[in-house]
UniProtKB/TrEMBL annotation:
Residues 3-143 form the RNase H type-1 domain. NCBIfam families: PRK07238.1. Gene3D superfamilies: Phosphoglycerate mutase-like, Ribonuclease H-like superfamily/Ribonuclease H. The lineage of its organism: Bacteria, Bacillati, Actinomycetota, Actinomycetes, Micromonosporales. This is Bifunctional RNase H/acid phosphatase. Residues 133-154 are annotated as: Disordered. It comes from Actinoplanes oblitus.
Length: 364
């Protein structure tokens, strides 16, 4: 199938005992006609309801990807999964975080994915499949590997993983003054150059075998990327437009205090929701969409390689938010220093492991 395919994924999972014998089911339907396009179900051994529900979601997203779907509407009767994947609830159970991260990685491969809760009686198709799995029936279609139990998950092998070294650009005059710096093309200061050189040394310490250095098109990132590339082998720098900073619109060049004074209601709404954009600017939801697309392209283009990504505060925060399956509050609580370094691994199947966030020892 090709083109703009919109599908509905109905997913469910269950456990007879919690933990107990568990299974999941997922149905992919054409959004326009309701026609069932694919079904997936499998037993999971002994685990919990929540693990089974996340497993159903992952199976449904994978099935949608097999159909080359572009837009996905996920419907589940699990309030927990829907709220956590929507970013409104924190994921407190460490056993669920790897599954949520895997689901988030799959979400990033589509143009759009929405999550909605439905009552159990409206999720009967997926529920029936989950019960068939728990009853011992098997499906001939390929299945995802057995989901890990909550206390037994271990990091996967690094084989075939793309390692991303995320670097924020060095300081500019706007950085030093605490001003919103979006699309304005300001250069690094002398301090910023020194920070970028220090970051280059840290990147070289992490890996001399770098496959690519990718950067936002703005000068402060390009210069940072050039210094890193020179340190790890003199490779060319590749510009990726989707790594550009958020467009802060009328707030460009303003401090937080100036924005609060001049646009108090707009600022409050912006802090409350990632769907709200600054006046004449860009919402974090819009930034997230293009950055997810960029990440998907990077993983596809550089499997098993080390890739340096030089970008800005907003794109890097959004990448880390998705990787950690965190809520939107994460965006306002995480601080990223100029020339700070974060590291994560992404596997082709969507698994993610965050290794470090905002390393700054090289700047001291």
């Amino acid at each position: 199938m090709s083109g703009d395919l919109r599908v509905v994924v109905e997913a469910d999972g269950g456990s007879r005992g919690n933990p107990g014998p568990a299974g999941y089911g997922a149905v992919v339907k054409d959004a326009a006609t309701g026609e069932v396009l694919l079904e997936r179900f499998a037993a999971l051994g002994t685990t919990t309801n929540n693990v089974a529900e996340y497993s159903g979601l992952i199976a449904g997203l994978r099935a949608a990807a097999e159909l080359n779907a572009t837009r996905v509407e996920v419907r589940m009767d699990s309030k927990l999964v829907v709220e956590q994947m929507s970013g409104r609830w924190q994921i407190k159970n460490p056993g669920l975080r790897p599954l949520a991260a895997e689901a988030a990685g799959l979400v990033a491969t589509f143009e759009s994915v929405t999550f909605g809760w439905i009552p159990r009686e409206r999720n009967k198709d997926a529920d029936a499949l989950a019960n068939r799995a728990m009853d011992g029936e098997t499906e001939s279609a390929p299945q995802r590997p057995e989901a890990p139990a909550a206390k037994s998950w271990a990091p996967p092998s690094l084989e075939n993983a793309t390692r991303l070294i995320l670097v924020r650009h060095g300081a500019t005059a706007m950085t030093a003054q605490g001003r919103y710096s979006g699309r304005g093309d300001v250069p690094l200061t002398d301090e910023g150059e020194a920070q970028a050189m220090a970051a280059a040394g840290r990147v070289a310490g992490l890996s001399r075998d770098v496959g690519a250095v990718l950067t936002s098109p703005l000068a402060r990132c390009v210069r940072t990327a050039e210094l890193i590339a020179a340190e790890v082998g003199g490779m060319p720098v590749t510009v990726l437009d989707d790594l550009i900073e958020c467009d802060f619109g009328l707030w460009e060049g303003k401090t937080f205090a100036e924005v609060q004074e001049g646009w108090p209601r707009e600022m409050a709404a912006w802090l409350e929701s990632t769907s709200v954009a600054p006046p004449r600017g860009e919402s974090f939801q819009a930034v997230a969409k293009r950055v997810r697309g960029a990440m998907a392209k990077i993983v596809q283009a550089y499997p098993g390689q080390v890739v340096v990504v030089v970008s800005h505060v907003s794109p890097i925060k959004l990448i880390l938010r998705d990787a950690l399956a965190a809520g939107d509050a994460f965006l306002h609580r995480l601080f990223l220093d100029a020339a700070g370094v974060s590291t994560m691994d992404i596997w082709p199947d969507g698994n993610i492991a965050v290794r470090s966030v905002n390393e700054t020892a090289h700047l001291r």
